[in-house]
Amino acid sequence: MQTTTINTPFGPLELPSIPEEASSKLCLTLHWAASTYNVSSFELTKYHFVLGADGAIHKGVPVENNLSFAGHPRPANYAAHVLNANTNNIGISAASMADAAEVEARKGHYGTYPVTEKQIAAIVEIAAQMCFLWNIPVIPTRVLGHEEWDSVNGRPQDRWDVNCIPHLDIRPHLNADGTYDSTNWIRSEIRKRVQALATQSRPELPAGAMDDVDAALKVLYTAAQTGLPMTPDTRRTALKALNEFNGVLVNLGFK
Ligand SMILES: [Zn+2]
């Protein structure tokens, strides 16, 4: 598969080109590994990307090993990071939280290896780059914490990653019952980053492009108004200009 390497503050991120058939179903699952800060070879067989305490990206299982599309059945050596839901599901995990427990964490005790701010920032960056590259909407059914597979997609997991993190000023995110939901907050951060990426990559209109589009619209309008057939040359020129304009609209996110 063709890959794109994206330079991030957490190291290079290598992502394959994925056919729309698979990318349109792709999910991103956010985890912590219930491990120490050591990124072990075991963790690298469970996830596609594992983050060290400083957020550094460690490449695990190749993304394509969890993909399934025409001509590419899911390989046997996929990353098994979610129970009964690993096909077209990418796992990003922070090496952390070895001896943490939800009840204690909700009281503010996260154990010896609390998930770090840099790890959360790296999760946001990686997920945003993927969402941008593969056009994944940042919605709970597609970008979700491991814990949410039960409530959102009906696959019980009995996990709590990543719904309780130590360094979030949680007050604005409190639910009515006093609990909080850091996964929603992480998703909103991912959404912001995707929007920033989309803005940065907005292409400049090529010189004369709007003139071409104007000319093409005039030709089509005249043809429609008069009912006169266009010459093949005029039609070709008009369609080419409109096609380019269509590409610009897609890139700007209007289509
Ligand atoms: Zn998990």
Task: Characterise this structure.
- With 255 residues, the chain is of the alpha/beta class.
- The protein has 2 domains: 3-200, Lysozyme-like (3-Layer(aba) Sandwich); 209-252, no CATH class.
- It has 8 helices and 7 strands, in the order ββαβαβββααβαααα.
- It has helices at 20-23, 41-46, 102-105, 117-134, 148-153, 182-200, 209-226, 232-252, and strands spanning 3-8, 11-16, 27-32, 49-51, 57-59, 89-94, 143-145.
- The strands form 2 sheets. A 5-stranded mixed sheet has the order 5-4-6-3-7.
- Helix 4 (117-134) packs across helix 6 and helix 7 crosses helix 8.
- The two termini are 27 Å apart.
- The model has no long low-confidence stretch (mean pLDDT 88).
- The structure holds zinc ion.
- Zinc ion binds next to loops.
Topology, please?
Blueprint: E1 3-8, E2 11-16, H1 20-23, E3 27-32, H2 41-46, E4 49-51, E5 57-59, E6 89-94, H3 102-105, H4 117-134, E7 143-145, H5 148-153, H6 182-200, H7 209-226, H8 232-252
Parallel strand pairs: 3-6, 3-7, 4-6
Antiparallel strand pairs: 1-2, 4-5
Summarize the structure.
With 255 residues, the chain is of the alpha/beta class. The chain has helices at residues 20-23, 41-46, 102-105, 117-134, 148-153, 182-200, 209-226, 232-252, and strands at residues 3-8, 11-16, 27-32, 49-51, 57-59, 89-94, 143-145. It folds into two domains: 3-200, Lysozyme-like (3-Layer(aba) Sandwich); 209-252, no CATH class.
